[in-house]
Amino acid sequence: MADGVFRVGLDPIDLHMSISALSVFNVANRHTFALIFKRDLDDPATLIARRDSIIEMVVRFVRK
Questions:
Q1: How would DSSP label each residue in 23-34?
Q2: Quick one: pLDDT at residue 2?
Q3: Per-residue pLDDT tens over the stretch 42-55
Q4: Which contiguous run of DSSP H or E holds residue 37?
Q5: In 3D, which of 23, 21, 20 has the Cα closest to residue 47?
Q6: Residue 1 — pLDDT band, cuts 50, 70, 90?
Q7: How far is CA 6 from CA 1, 2, 21, in A?
Q8: d(Cα 40, Cα 46) in Å, to the nearest integer?
Q9: CA–CA separation, 12 vs 19, rounded Å?
Q10: Is the dihedral of CA 43, 19, 36, 31 positive or negative?
Q11: Distance (Å, rounded) from C-alpha 4 to C-alpha 38?
Q12: Are 30 and 23 in contact (CB under 8 A)?
């Protein structure tokens, strides 16, 4: 924050909860979503793409 890279006023516990929710949701709902959307969510490339998407969401949220 001192260097102006991150947004001011973010609640670290709220951020932690959001990151946890994004992570747990994908594990808890993997089989249901695989069935609904006809995707192999256990495929390594799919897991990497989902991880990268979550990282991008979080980074965009915390950066100025």
A1: HHHHHHTHHHHH
A2: 86
A3: 999 999 999 999 99
A4: helix 30-37
A5: 23
A6: confident
A7: 5, 8, 21
A8: 7
A9: 10
A10: positive
A11: 43
A12: no
Helix, strand and coil percent figures for the chain, each rounded to 5: 70, 5, 30
Contact 62, 5 (CB under 8 A): no
- pLDDT digit string, tens, across residues 8-49: 999 999 999 999 999 999 899 999 999 999 999 999 999 999
pTM of the model as a whole: 0.83
How far, in Å, CA of 58 to CA of 37, rounded? 24
- Measured distance CA(44)–CA(2) in Å, rounded: 38
Residue the block writes with tokens 């516990």: 13
Q: Which amino acid is at 60?
A: R
d(CA 53, CA 10): 21
